[in-house]
Each structure stands twice: as C-alpha cells, then as structure tokens.
Task: structure prediction
Amino acid sequence: MLRGFYTAASGMLAAQYRQDMLTHNLANSETPGFKADQSVTRSFPQMLMQANQAQLVKNQQPIGGLSTAVYLQEQITDLRQGDIKQTGNSTDLALMQQGAAENEAVLFSVQTENGVRYTRNGNLQADEQGRLATGSGYLVQGIDGNPIQVNNEQFTVGSNGAVTVDGQAIGTIQVVHSENTNALEKDGDGLYRDEENVLQSAHGNNDVTFAIQQYALENSNVNVAQTMNEMLQSYRIFEANQKVLQAYDQSLEKAVNEVGRIT
Result:
C-alpha cells in the first residue's frame, strides 16, 4: 500500500512540474523570440522491479513488470522559427534561420555581466552611450567581439547583419549557429548559455543560411491554444493522482483504526 502512495505522489509531482513549465510558456507567449519548453515524462524502469520480485517466487518465475513511479525526465527547448511581424521600428531585428534543420538554430550574441550569452529576441535599443543593446541592457556584439556603436536609432541593418550609419559601415552584428540545440541551456531573460561550446559564427559558413530583417520582430513560437489544452490535461492528471492518494489514505486509516484494533 505504501508503494501506491509513492506512485500517486510521483504522478502529482510530475504533473505539477509540467504545469509550471506550461504556465511559463503561456506567460511568455507575447515575448519576442521566446522559445517554448517541452517536457519528457518517463516511468521508473520496470525491469528492476521484475528482477527483484522474481527472487521471491519459487523456480525463479517472473511475475511481470511493475511500475513504481513516474518523473519529469527533462525539459527540451523548441528553437523552431516563430512568425515574423512588421513593427516599423528601426531597432527591431528579426533573425530568420533559412533552411535550418529541426535541431539547428541561429542566435544573436550579447555581452552580459555574466559573460557572453545568446538570444533570439531582436527587440533592441540604443543605450545611453549609443551602443546597440537589448531591452535589458545587454550589449549586442559585433563579429569583432566589440559592441556596435550606432549613436542613435537612425541606422540600417543589412540581411547579413552589416550595420551602416549615414551610409558608413560601422560593423557587423555577430550571429552564431548551433547544430545541436539540446546543448544550449536557458539562462533567464530570454538568454541562452553555451556550456559545451557548440556555437560557431554563422558568418562565412556556407552551410548556414540566415537573414536579418529590420523593422520586424520574431514572435514567440508558443501555440497558445495547444498550451492551454495541455495545461488542462496536466491538471486532470494531477487531480486523478490526488484521488488515488486519498483512496490509499482512507484504506490505510481503516487498516490502522479498525482492522488492526485489539479488542
């Protein structure tokens, strides 16, 4: 009976973690360049339980598999391209990955207080010193590793990231590419960190095709209707496991207070 407690409780925890992830996706459905998380749920391996139980049966006869728990194994970020919308703002840049495979991605490179990070959010601005920066103040890097000095918002960005002010080229925005998006980790505020050094410059790489569109932004790739449906499903799973837990609790209470009573 106690095993049933653990099984139901693990189901509730897995549903709660998934609900938190879906809530975060939904809350960022209007954030430019946001990429939704997806979860992978897995049950505890049955073979281990089968082997343990077989030791208690004569002639070593297996009695079959027995699931003991379920857990949220991992969260995977979906880096597929979001829809592009026109904004009319010169500081808005949409980064488009053209012909990329499902597990590939291109990103902007920015300088933060914790080092270099990467983002798909092209909602930029000119900071107080005239440098191109994100809304949170992270400096957009050029291919030389230095900030892009635009001075004001009257600048032009070409499809290859080349920035010009008053007809004069002042630098090129660094765009990086990854063939293994699973190696990237979310770092908050729409940023990613590259712990495994899988990111390489996309400039001069004939195998990578990207384009930057000025006066436009990439929308979040969150499917709001699907996310709300998955949240409802997750809630129902949590509720079902909760009822199972309550049933076990009532059975255990009866076993202790009635069946086990000494008269």
Summary: The two ends are 24 Å apart (CA to CA).
